[in-house]
Design brief:
The structure holds two protein chains of two kinds.
Chain A (H helix, E strand, L loop, with lengths): L5 H4 L15 H20 L5 H17 L5 E6 L3 E4 L2 E5 L7 H6 L3 E7 L6 H13 L8 H8 L4 E5 L18 H25 L16 H4 L3 H16 L2 H13 L5 H20 L3 H16 L6 H14 L2 H13 L6 H9 L6 H10 L3 H17 L1 H7 L5 H13 L6 H7 L5 H14 L2 H10 L5 H14 L5 H9 L8 H15 L4 H9 L10 H12 L4 H9 L6 H14 L1
Antiparallel strand pairs in A: 1-2, 1-4, 2-3, 4-5
Helix pairs in contact in A: 2-3, 2-5, 5-6, 10-11, 10-12, 11-12, 11-13, 12-13, 12-15, 14-16, 15-17, 16-17, 16-19, 19-21, 20-21, 20-22, 21-23, 22-23, 23-25, 24-25, 25-27, 26-27, 26-28, 27-29, 28-29
Chain B lengths: L8 H21 L5 H21 L2 E6 L2 E4 L2 E3 L6 H13 L2 E6 L8 H9 L7 H9 L7 E5 L9 H27 L6 H25 L8 H19 L4 H12 L10 H4 L7 H7 L2 H11 L8 H9 L20 H15 L12 H10 L7 H11 L7 E4 L4 E6 L11 E6 L5 E9 L14 E5 L8 H5 L2
Antiparallel strand pairs in B: 1-2, 1-4, 2-3, 4-5, 6-7, 6-10, 7-8, 8-9
Helix pairs in contact in B: 1-2, 1-3, 1-4, 6-7, 6-8, 7-8, 7-9, 8-9, 8-14, 8-16, 9-13, 12-13, 13-14, 14-15, 15-16
Classes of the chains: A mainly alpha, B alpha+beta.
Chain lengths: 580, 475
């Protein structure tokens, strides 16, 4: 690009200019109106928005029409205007939205659109303007941004404000005779000394300044094609290289040096900035590397002083904090971080117990199956190292976390959690109570079973069903009386078939011989009027009998094997086979 | 950037050379009626017609390592260096410096021209021989000029002024930035970026003038001129290995900041005129690490400048990692860092500076960098630098076989003649200054004997004798 001559840049008024009437001034004026609108649309709307597309197409069309008359549009710029050949083609009322001021304030005094700008480059051009509008004073300016954009069909000239007050290097008068003669004399003396020395030393090589014919052999300095190819491969490799990793290695190399404690703190501060920076850019691999290195450092004695240790601890804690992990999950979910399950699992490995609530919450709520599975694996990994933390989580207010923890306790067989699980059976949230019941089954914890009895009349159907199954699985005989009341009560008759089966099977499992008569009556008995129990009750009673494993129960089932009711008959057969 | 015609001459020019090279190769292998040859000629002719129509003509010139299409210098990179090199040699063998294609060129004119390029060069006067043979062909719209007539298109004085302006601004920016850093003030990165953008533009369009600027040893404090010189040499090396404009910019930014860590080193050590104690060396050797850390603090980059950080951190590491800082983890210095390392060593080695022994003549520095493996430079990159600076870099003070003193003023672009640059003779054989320095091309041979008219017999250090070479180069 050319540097604009200051003298011409400051005198762009129309006074002395001979106007070229052949110029399509009105069309160019209209072009800038459209450009301003397209730019506004570019700022307001997303890439695929039809409004933005429409404005861009309009702008393209106007450029194309102008190229039938011109091969370039050159306009000069002042604070508020563009001029085509001295005639105003753009005026802005407000500096805030002014295209002219956007260029002028950074020194641009003339802009040229070339035929072709309406192609792919048009959006890049608007992108540059957009970026320029958002620049902060201490950052780039339009000129640096335009340079980086390297536009082919847009040219500009500017006054270089940087050049002010800079003295150019100028040649001096040259050297005096004495100075030049001194060189020749000194070099002659050197030659003589060298000759004498080489005479004495025999095969000593000449001093480096003396020209040797070998130096002129091009093979010594010219690159052959193989060497060029090697360089080419190196450049390619370089451009694909993850320089963050090299920088991290440098930082950790120096962090391990114990002689400069204040530098260690500075590096740790840098790392504490880098870590969120990596995550915000979705770079989970370098972020994992930071955590890995920090954890290693934390475990080494003497590398860091107390302050350093505290800082490392604080960083590792911060990564495991709920806010951080909420952000992480959000980033994983919206695609800001695109990590493979292995990469993500690698990162999560370095989290601490404090990360459990957020991770648990996410592992219970995210819909993405693969992500959920990775999160669950991570939760288990952290929980294994932090069993105590898991116990405290059973008291979490967040029902999702409490429920997840209950399941985790069951999966991990954390038997010491049984008392806390019993407490959760009274949790106001059904999902938590349900998870606690399921955990009790996994733990086979009889200490919870007592509490499960009270859950049989839980307001939530799933909890009641789970509790019944739990009691049956645990064969908790003390619950037989409560279950007998339910089996014989009216409430169960209005329950769905699933609940009926769960309750009757639980009763069958805990009641033993004592319950046969009751279930036989329900399965095979008739009322005074010869009426049988409803089909569902009879079928559930059959299944209950199937859990009893006694000859009396088997006998009761045999009577129903040829029952007229096909549902009853089928379930009796199933239960009978189980008994056998 | 698009040309006035709307054509992208950079792209089209590179394509044109590729097609010329393709046609040359096709005709080397097959007879003219072969389909491959005919295709190659058709493609070539189609492109030439477009360029000629848009531009009113097309002139391909080879100036040293560079091709020009009309006024546009075509960028050499690793994807086309072989094509450029082969075609340049084909022209060079026949003494052809420029091929001008006139409007009205016919498709049938290409085969005779290219076939003639494939024939062996004719004797002592290859251009004349080629021209005479060419005159017997039916080709009417291709005109040739000899190498001797071809010069870089830009006016020398104008180039030099532009280079001076860029250099002076860059030194000022480096001075401001490094000064601000020492004072703990925020650095105006925008100005630094503009300076580096200017250097990249100048190197791409006006390399030899920018090299001349690096001979300005006393323009400002060493720290500032050195930063700018390293930036210039790095960009020169970078463009020769095919980095594109934005990559050169990234390289230049890192190169300008390569010694930024010194701003945290005790100023008395930095400016110590005598040798350093062991303790002082230890402190000085911390500057790469300090540079890495300082760049983390610098605001104004769109992204964390990792590559620039590595240039600051790795430029004293040596390729075998035997330098400093010590690496505990696996490391391979980046090619950008290795470029800066070469540029840094070359400029530092040829400069008078604090804690520095006598500077070496530039040719001796290059030779040492190339030949002494203990220096730990990437020898391929040193070679690349030599192809840019020549065996005797611009600013080298030489003694000719006539005992005249001269300053190397321009590198010979012919790789075979890198040791025979252009020089400005500044004194007669007894040391009397010439009233007006005379420029000589040391590649000129005596037409009678065939021997060089003048030869360099020795190089010496201008700074040792207080010779200001820039006085003779900027004039």
């Amino acid at each position: 690009m050319n540097e604009f001559e200051r003298s011409s840049g400051d005198s762009m008024e129309g006074g002395d200019i001979l106007w070229d009437d052949a110029l399509p001034v009105d069309e160019v004026r209209q072009l800038f109106v459209t450009l301003a609108k397209a730019f506004r649309a570019y700022q307001l709307y997303d890439d695929n928005n039809p409004v933005r597309r429409r404005f861009l197409e309009g702008l393209r069309t106007e450029f194309q029409q102008l190229w039938t008359e011109l091969d370039r549009i050159v306009v000069t710029v002042d604070e508020d205007h563009f001029y085509l050949d001295g005639r105003e083609v753009y005026r802005s009322e407000s500096r805030a939205d002014s295209l002219a001021f956007l260029f002028f304030k950074d020194g641009v005094r003339e802009i040229t659109f070339l035929s072709g700008v309406e192609g792919d480059e048009l959006e890049r051009f608007l992108g540059v303007l957009q970026r320029a509008r958002k620049l902060v004073p201490e950052g780039d300016d339009l000129l640096t941004v335009l340079w980086e954009a390297d536009l082919r069909f847009f040219e500009y000239q500017y006054v270089d404000l940087m050049a002010e007050g800079v003295a150019l290097p100028e040649p001096g008068a040259g050297n005096s005779t004495a100075e030049l003669q001194a060189v020749l004399e000194a070099e002659d003396e050197t030659d003589e000394a060298d000759e004498a020395e080489s005479g004495e030393a025999g095969d000593e090589p000449p001093p480096p300044q003396t020209v040797k014919q070998d130096d002129f052999n091009p093979t010594l300095y010219a690159l052959d094609p193989r060497e060029m190819e090697k360089l080419r491969a190196e450049v390619k490799k370089e451009l694909a290289r993850d320089t963050r990793s090299d920088v991290l290695s440098a930082l950790f190399d120096r962090l391990e040096e114990r002689h400069d404690r204040s530098r260690q703190i500075e590096i740790l501060q840098i790392l504490s900035t880098l870590l969120p920076n990596f995550l915000s850019r979705g770079a989970i691999v370098p972020a994992t590397r930071v955590l890995e290195e920090l954890r290693t450092l934390e475990r080494q004695d003497g590398v860091l002083d107390e302050r350093g240790h505290a800082q490392v601890g604080a960083m590792l804690d911060a990564v495991s904090a709920r806010d951080t992990l909420d952000e992480l999950i959000k980033a994983l979910y919206d695609g800001t971080i695109r990590a493979t399950p292995t990469q993500l699992a690698g990162f999560l490995t370095y989290l601490r117990g404090a990360a459990l609530p957020a991770l648990l919450h996410a592992s219970e709520t995210v819909e993405h199956k693969e992500l959920r599975s990775v999160l669950r694996a991570a939760v288990q990994g952290i929980a294994r190292k932090n069993r105590a933390a898991v116990l405290t989580l059973l008291e979490e207010e967040d029902p999702v976390v409490a429920a997840g923890t209950a399941r985790l306790v069951g999966d991990m067989q954390i038997t010491e959690a049984a008392p806390a699980l019993a407490g959760l059976l009274a949790h106001p949230t059904a999902e938590v109570r349900l998870a606690a019941v399921e955990a009790a089954i996994s733990l086979k914890a009889s200490t919870v079973a007592g509490a499960l009895e009270h859950t049989l009349d839980d307001p939530d159907r799933d909890v009641r069903v789970a509790a019944a199954r739990a009691l049956g699985t645990l064969k908790y005989r003390p619950a037989a009386r409560v279950l007998a009341d339910i089996v014989g009560g009216k409430g169960i008759r209005s329950a769905d078939i699933g609940e009926k089966v769960a309750v009757f099977e639980a009763y069958g499992a805990v009641a033993g011989e004592d319950g046969v008569r009751r279930l036989d009556g329900l399965l095979n008995g008739k009322s005074l009027f010869g009426k049988r129990e409803p089909t569902e009750v009879r079928a559930a009673a059959a299944l209950g009998l199937g859990r009893m494993s006694t000859p009396a129960a088997k006998e009761a089932l045999r009577k129903a094997l040829d029952d007229d009711d096909p549902v009853v008959r089928s379930n009796a057969n199933r239960a009978f086979r189980r008994e056998e | 950037m698009a040309h006035e015609s709307g054509l992208n001459l950079q792209e089209e020019g590179r394509r044109l050379l590729a097609l010329l090279y393709g046609a040359l190769n096709a005709l080397r292998l097959y007879p003219v009626e072969n389909e491959t040859v005919q295709h190659a000629i058709s493609d070539l002719h189609g492109l030439v017609e477009r360029i000629v129509e848009a531009e009113g003509g097309a002139e391909v010139r080879v100036v040293g390592d560079f091709f020009f299409l009309n006024e546009t210098r075509l960028r050499l990179d690793l994807s086309n260096f072989s094509t450029f090199g082969s075609f340049a040699r084909a022209l060079h063998d026949h003494g052809i410096g420029a091929v001008e294609i006139l409007p009205g060129i016919e498709r049938s004119e290409w085969a005779p021209f290219i076939s003639m390029l494939l024939r062996g060069p004719g004797g002592d006067q290859p251009f004349e021989t080629f021209r005479d043979r060419f005159a017997t062909t039916p080709v009417e719209h291709i005109e040739l000029r000899p190498l001797s007539e071809v010069e870089e298109p830009k006016d020398d004085a104008e180039s030099l002024t532009a280079a001076k302006r860029t250099y002076a601004q860059s030194v000022k920016v480096a001075k401001d930035a490094l000064g601000d850093m020492r004072l703990g003030k925020a650095v105006n990165v925008r100005k630094v970026k503009r300076a580096v953008q200017g250097i990249v533009d100048q190197v791409l369009s006006n390399e030899s003038s920018m090299v001349t600027m690096t001979t300005l040893r006393d323009f400002d404090e060493y720290t500032f001129t050195h930063s700018v010189n390293v930036c210039i040499f790095s960009v020169i090396i970078g463009q020769r290995i095919g980095l594109d404009r934005l990559q050169l910019y990234e390289l230049g930014l890192g190169a300008l900041f390569h010694d930024v860590g010194k701003q945290r080193i005790d100023v008395d050590i930095i400016n110590k005129p005598t040798g350093l104690t062991e303790e002082e060396w230890r402190e000085l050797m911390e500057h790469p690490t300090e540079g890495l850390l300082i760049l983390f603090q610098m605001q104004g980059f769109a992204d964390v400048p990792y590559r620039q950080m590595l240039m600051a951190y790795e430029h004293h590491m040596k390729t075998d990692l035997s330098g400093y800082p010590e690496s505990r983890r696996p490391r391979e210095p980046t090619i950008f860092s290795r470029i800066v390392s070469v540029a840094d060593a070359f400029d530092a080695g040829t400069s008078v500076r604090s804690y520095q022994y006598e500077p070496w003549p530039p040719d001796a520095v290059l030779q040492e960098m190339r030949d002494n493996p203990k220096r730990g430079f990437d020898t391929l990159l040193v070679k690349v630098l030599i192809t840019a600076t020549g065996v005797y870099p611009v600013g080298t003070l030489v003694i000719l076989d006539t005992h005249e003193l001269a300053v190397v003023s321009q590198v010979n672009p012919d790789l075979e003649l890198l040791h025979r640059p252009k020089v400005r003779v500044i004194s007669d054989p007894v040391g009397l200054p010439l009233s007006e320095p005379v420029t000589l091309d040391l590649s000129d041979d005596d037409p009678v004997t065939g021997a060089p008219v003048r030869q360099i017999i020795k190089t010496t250090d201008p700074q040792k004798y207080g010779i200001r070479v820039s006085d003779y180069l900027l004039a």
